[in-house]
Structure formats: C-alpha cells, structure tokens
Design goal:
The protein has about 100 residues and is an all-alpha fold. It folds into 2 domains: about 25-60, no CATH class; about 60-98, no CATH class. The chain is about 65% helix and about 0% strand. The chain contains 5 helices and no strands. The chain has helices at about 1-15, 25-35, 40-55, 65-75, 80-95. The longest helix has 14 residues, at about 1-15. It is rod-shaped and about 75 Å long.
C-alpha cells in the first residue's frame, strides 16, 4: 500500500509540475503555425524557419532603484567635495533615470 501511495505521489509531481507545462518554444510553434495558414511547400518551410528563429522582443529596461541611483551618483561624484558634492548628489538623485 505504501508503494502504491508513493508511486501515486510521484506521478502527481510529474503531471502537475510547471516544468512539464507548455514552454515558450511550444507557444512560439503554435503562433507561427497559426500565422502560416495558407502557405504551402517551400513558402511555408521558409516562413516557419524565419518565424521560429526570430528572437522575442526585448523587455523594456526596469527603472533604476534608489540604491542603484545612489551607487551611480556616488561613483560619478568622486571628484567633488563639500557643498559642490551635496548639490551634485541632490540633482543627480532627483532626475529620473531609465
């Protein structure tokens, strides 16, 4: 009975594991396949090759965190001292960075 329960648990782990779910390549294949409707022969082959080898669009860069801004501003303010440094840091930290 314990062996059966262990096997059932193991089977559930494989079935419901997200790693075994549809991956990006499968999604890409389905999308390219849908876009290739109406194409046949060499035209379809060429289209599918181009479509499947295309790189996904890059995600937009996340804005800098306050800590990253501080590091960047600190590194560029090494030659400044006193009030000049204070003014520079205030200006540097307040401007939006991408």
């Amino acid at each position: 009975m314990k062996k059966l329960t262990g096997l059932a648990l193991l089977a559930c782990c494989f079935i419901f594991n997200p790693a075994f779910a549809e991956n990006s390549q499968q999604t890409k294949m389905a999308s390219c396949n849908k876009d290739a409707t109406g194409k046949t022969g060499d035209d379809r082959k060429a289209f599918m090759k181009d479509c499947l080898s295309a790189k996904p669009a890059a995600a937009p860069a996340a804005p800098m965190t306050q800590q990253e801004k501080m590091k960047s501003c600190n590194a560029s303010a090494t030659d400044k001292k006193g009030d000049d440094r204070k003014a520079y840091m205030k200006q540097c930290l307040s401007k939006p960075k991408a």
